[in-house]
Amino acid sequence: MTTSDAVASTAHGASAARLRVTVPSVADRVAAELRLQLAEGVLLPGTRLTESAIADDLGVSRNTVREAFAELAAERLVVRLPNRGVFVASLGPGDIHDVYTVRRFIEVSAIRAGGSPGRVAAVRAAVEEGRAAAAADDEEALGTANQHFHGAIVALAESRRLDTIMSQVLAEMRLFFHKATLDAHFYRGYLDDNEEICAALEAGELDRAAGLLLAYLDRSEEKQSAVHGD
């Protein structure tokens, strides 16, 4: 083997090693699915999660589900109670402030930088999804549309790392939004805000869109803190 062949072989091996590292494991994919179910409001705070049921539903081993639970527990999305099992977490006021701090950094930065026409269209699609849900009096779908709106804002940045961070944030948001949604019209209050933010984004008024979003997040945190500070 020539020196150049050896270098090429080494480079190929290193590339393959990096690929193996970056490809999500089955447990990672199970955790991502459960995280999505949390964000979409399918799994409610306090719900008991069983390895066998999830393994059967997703067609994976119980060991894989156990690994996924460990990942979600590290993110404080689930808790393992001795002799009782694994449960969806219930978050408190301290978690709320932490989540909104993260949201201010990534959402406001993402919208201030703008995005491609396709990414902006996805923000508009989430607004229209919310309006359709409101017209149908479907509060759960309205909540999911609001999650899609904020996910689409972060997706403007076209960063897989930010999308991954936001997937956890969206899951946490839905967990503490459940208490607030005892008010049947909780999400309707955000529809006009979402429209105004989206319109500014579409007009290329990025600083204005960022300012509107920041004010929105401040109001939202105050509302959540009031609900959970009882």
From TrEMBL:
Give the top-rank taxon of the lineage listed in the UniProt record for this protein.
Answer: Bacteria
Report the source organism: Arthrobacter ginsengisoli
**A GO molecular-function term, please?**
DNA binding
Q: What is this protein called?
A: DNA-binding GntR family transcriptional regulator
**Chain ranges of the HTH gntR-type domain:** 24-91
Q: Which InterPro entries match?
A: GntR_C, TF_FadR/GntR_C, Tscrpt_reg_HTH_GntR, WH-like_DNA-bd_sf, WH_DNA-bd_sf
Give the UniProt keywords, A-Z.
DNA-binding, Transcription, Transcription regulation
Cross-referenced PROSITE patterns, in alphabetical order?
Answer: HTH_GNTR (PS50949)
